[in-house]
Amino acid sequence: MNNKPKYHLFNNTRYAIDGLVHAIKNESSFRLELLMAVFIIVGIIYIDVSITQKMILLVSGILVLIVELINSAIENVVDLNTLETKPLAKAAKDIGAAAVMLCILLHVTCWVLVLI
Fold this sequence. Notes:
Elements: H1 9-26, H2 28-46, H3 51-81, H4 87-115
Helix pairs in contact: 1-2, 2-3, 3-4
């Protein structure tokens, strides 16, 4: 089955916005990280560091949101496939969560290094 729609800039943008809206409405972890991103962006604006350091903080913060979206997609696909507890389903979800955790650790590390 080929469920791949023909590329169309406006349709693809709409799909992306739909995915973002779905994540905001249904994924509590993403909502929390998005809320934290607001405070982080304000912090980035007000700290007295170089523009390069500000960009590193901004990019690593946005990366957290991106990885959380990918993790949520993995979780949704696993849940679509099975609601039973299966070792591979658990492993897929745990690996996605580990990716988010590592990304958050990277972001925190960037903050520590910039502020030192």
